[in-house]
Amino acid sequence: MNRNVVTFADVALSSGATRGDSDRPGKALPGQLTADDYWSRLAKYVPIEMISAYVLLKGLIESAYKPGQTALTVALGVLAVLGAATTWLFSRRVLRVVRKSQAVLSVFGFLVWTIATGGVFATMSWYQPWMGTAAVIMFGVAVQIIQLPPLPVQPDRA
C-alpha cells in the first residue's frame, strides 16, 4: 500500500477534475486516483510498524526495572525520543512518504500513542490515564481537519 495520503487536490491534479466533480472519497473508476477517506488517512498517519516496535521495547524496558526507579523513567524517555526520530526516518525512507507535513503528523501519531499507552508519561506525577484518551481523540479530530498540500508532480506524470 502506498502510504502517501491522497487528497482531493491530488485527484484534481491527476484528472483535471475539481472537488465538486467527485467529493466522495474512494469513489472512482478502476485505475483512477481517488482521495483517501478518513479511515485511510488515519491508517496512513499512524505508523503501526513503529508503534509495534515501541510496544515491544517498552515491555522489555519495564521488565528490566522496578517501578519508581529513575532509570525506568530515563529509559522510557529515551525510547520515546528515539521512537519519534525513527518514525520520521522510517516514514520518509522506508514508507517513502513524500510530504514532510505527513511525516510530521506520523511523528505526532507516534507520540500520541506513547501518551495513550502511558510509557514515560506514566512515570510522572502529573500524568493521568484520561490524558492518553484525550490525546487520541484530539489526534483523530486533527486528522479530519488538517489538509495537506498536493503531492509534488513527478516528472513522468507531467
Question: What would you say about this model in short?
Answer:
By secondary structure, this protein is mainly alpha-helical.
Task: Give an account of the 3D structure.
With 158 residues, the protein is mainly alpha-helical. It has a domain at 41-145. 58% of the residues lie in helices and 0% in strands. It has 6 helices and no strands. It has helices spanning 8-15, 38-45, 48-64, 70-94, 100-116, 129-145. The longest helix has 25 residues, at 70-94. The model is unreliable at 18-22 (pLDDT under 50).
List keywords for this structure.
158 residues; Integral membrane protein; transmembrane helix; transmembrane
Overall outline: elongated
Q: What is the makeup of the main sheet?
A: none
Tell how many strands the DSSP assignment holds: 0
Structural class: mainly alpha
Could you state the order of secondary-structure elements as H and E? HHHHHH
The percentage of residues in β strands lies in under 5%
Discrete helix count: 6
| Oligomeric status | single chain
Radius of gyration: 19 Å
In terms of per-residue confidence, which ranges show pLDDT below 50 for 5 or more consecutive residues? 18-22
End-to-end Cα distance, whole Å, is 23 Å
| Percentage of residues assigned to helices | 55-70%
| Average predicted confidence as pLDDT | 87
